[in-house]
């Protein structure tokens, strides 16, 4: 059967439309896998590279215990030694290194597969814990300890799949000043979970995205910490997500890290995807629109970012802007 010029053109147009749709409906890429920690690699330094996404403000103060000392890059001069379980009056059992320094995890990282999203300035404030010369002390399941290879080739310790960090502002053994910073950083429990006030240790808060009924805005999307999620009017969703919040903007509007579709509740599944930003960081979208939280929101339920600059608005379950002027 002959194909007419008109039918061939229509077919080509259909393929083009489907290609654009696919661009906003899929994500590709690979992540580093975690391996059990070994002692084959010599102790070395870790230097963060790349974007500073997730940093709670770059700290230039000397890091504790030789961590990041003198380099300004979050380098570590030695291994963590024998890990220990320490009892904290507020958080219960937390994980520390051989010198008693608290270990932390970052919500923007992933455990399955294990991957760090803290580089550059972020790794200065939160130096990665070297996987070299690490061993499990009493009360620690050594099978939970692993390692990932960072972009500079150094090995970072993982606990339960979660990359481990120090906090540069922890000056002494037992300090936990990094707990809850930015609602994204938490002390590690011996099981790799987030330490919680009151001694609880649970990942129950990891609900991905869900919907909250706000008395002023109605139904809005919140992240796994209950913090309000926002969209930026200058971003693009079609034919593929594009974020126009970069550099200093990200200090006020941290991106929402990728979540699994089955880890959401009440949020429209269509267009629910992640994409890789221009700085290499992966960001979540709702209906293909990039989403963020606001540094000015200090507690779950806050909506201080609503309407800021006439460009930032809360997000409805279908991904639409809440309370924004008609476009």
| Low-confidence parts | 1-22, 25-33, 38-77, 202-206
Class by alpha and beta content: mainly beta
Distance between the termini: 48 Å
Strand order in space, largest sheet: 1-8-9-10
Radius of gyration using CA atoms only: 22 Å
Shape: elongated
Helicity, in percent?
under 10%
Put simply, the count of helices is: 3
Oligomer: single chain
SSE string, helices as H and strands as E: HEEEEEEHEEEEEEEEHEEEE
The biggest beta sheet is recorded as:
4 strands, antiparallel
Give the tally of β-strands: 18
Q: Roughly what is the average pLDDT, rounded to an integer? A: 79
> How much β-strand is present in the residues?
15-25%
Q: Which features characterize this protein?
A:
mainly beta; 327 residues; 18 strands; 9% helix; four-stranded antiparallel sheet
